[in-house]
Design brief:
- By secondary structure, the protein is an all-alpha fold.
- It has a domain of about 55 residues.
- About 70% of the residues lie in helices and about 0% in strands.
């Protein structure tokens, strides 16, 4: 039987390994270009906000006008509520006055009826003739 073996050679010296590194600065150039573009974009954005002092003043005036309108609306609603309450109070007072007047008229009518009944009793009562 013949066994086959692989032959290896052992040497006393280690094999020389050469590692080649490729050095390229292209990645750094791309990163620097992106940073410069970003910086220019930020400067452009900050310096060109698009608002002028006149536009800012107009915006302030518009805000003040809207605040005045809101205040006027709130005051008008409050005045309407107060007017409605006053009208309700006036109606209640008028009803009370009418009720008082009706009660007083009824009392006077009852008194007039009593007076008329008493007068009728006095008129109908037969008094005896005086004796001579």
């Amino acid at each position: 039987m013949s066994d086959q073996y692989e032959r290896t050679t052992v040497t006393g010296e280690p094999a020389q390994v050469v590692i080649r590194e490729r050095s390229s600065s292209a990645g750094w150039w791309v990163a620097a270009l992106v940073a410069v573009i970003a910086l220019v974009g930020v400067v452009f954005y900050m310096s060109n906000s698009g608002t002028t002092p006149n536009e800012l003043e107009a915006a302030r005036e518009q805000g003040a006008a809207e605040a005045n309108l809101a205040t006027a609306t709130q005051n008008a609603q409050q005045a309407a509520t107060t007017a409605a309450q006053s009208a309700q109070n006036a109606a209640a007072n008028a009803a009370s006055a009418t009720e008082s007047a009706a009660s007083a008229a009824a009392a006077r009518t009852d008194q007039a009826i009593d007076n008329a009944a008493q007068a009728a009793d006095n008129a109908v009562t037969i008094e005896p003739e005086p004796k001579n």
